[in-house]
Amino acid sequence: MVKRTSLAGDSCPIARALDVFGDWWSLLIIRDASLGCRRFGEFQTSLGLAKNILATRLRTLVERGILKMIPASDGSAYQEYVLSPKGRGIFPILVALRQWSEEFDEHPNEIDTFLVDRENGKPVQKLALYSQDGRLLSAADTTLKPRAAAKRARRVPA
Amino acid sequence: MVKRTSLAGDSCPIARALDVFGDWWSLLIIRDASLGCRRFGEFQTSLGLAKNILATRLRTLVERGILKMIPASDGSAYQEYVLSPKGRGIFPILVALRQWSEEFDEHPNEIDTFLVDRENGKPVQKLALYSQDGRLLSAADTTLKPRAAAKRARRVPA
DNA sequence: CAATCAGGTTTAATAATGCAACCAGACTGG
DNA sequence: CCAGTCTGGTTGCATTATTAAACCTGATTG
């Protein structure tokens, strides 16, 4: 089998997250959802992807608890896709992606929006990692520690 | 043409970031690189991906300025792949992905590591978004503002 | 009741992925 | 210095995934 090597059983949390929404379109769907898109057609015209792909992506995102379908909202008997709490939790990842592009993109002048505080319209601060006692941490200041009670991911023994 | 719809010309910074390292393996390669992997073979055994895929991924990551090749380091006349500053800038994204899994994964007991402050071994704080005057912001507290001097991404006119 | 639209599914083409085999240059041992 | 082996790939081919376009169904509009 040449299957697409699912990372679901991996013990790395980064791989596990990518397994849930790490493909090309899913994050963009989530981005649009967090910007207010709700209807199939809205996503489709915004993203310009094929309808079958959108349909499967929406379905798996619903299955995985990122999106949920709610019945109506504007009267018509259709469904809408809105983010669950689990889906809203992806927001920091979107912000991190955005800020990376703002800092490192080769052509930053092609970026047409920036993220601002709704209250006063000022740009938000850059995401930063802090220690428990408030020191700013870079990658080199951190390390990975094995979890004590890490239940091994199931592996076929033989 | 049924090409893979590159997002490079998109004006959304999230899409632009995904275009650079948003595929299945690239982020995992970057993760391993930030954990100390340097050699082709290290990446291959760590990730378990096909060598041809690894070769093309490493090549494009170098082309895009995420990784750079440095000559030797252990004497032998081979090359090593290390993160550039642009690549190290991806670290917050990895942290955000990790923290999402820690918070929302269905089987958090299968996660075997957690990120700690190297200085005292304590877990790091959760990434959080702040306004310029220090208020904690959720997605709903933010909005997108068009950039004044947004040079339009080139589009074929007709 | 014909037309249209939202929200998909099906079909057939093309592109990407995965595995295994192959290959070249650097090292190793005798 | 010659065979064997390791690193770091490339090449070929089978399997998947992605895509555009056609089609379909139920709801709404005229």
TrEMBL record, chains A, B:
Gene3D superfamilies attached to this UniProt entry: Winged helix-like DNA-binding domain superfamily/Winged helix DNA-binding domain
Keyword Transcription annotated: yes
Keywords: DNA-binding, Transcription, Transcription regulation
UniProt-recorded Gene Ontology molecular function terms: DNA binding
The HTH hxlR-type domain, residue ranges: 12-109
InterPro entries: HTH_HxlR, WH-like_DNA-bd_sf, WH_DNA-bd_sf
Protein's name in the database: HTH-type transcriptional regulator
Taxonomic lineage: Bacteria, Pseudomonadati, Pseudomonadota, Alphaproteobacteria, Hyphomicrobiales
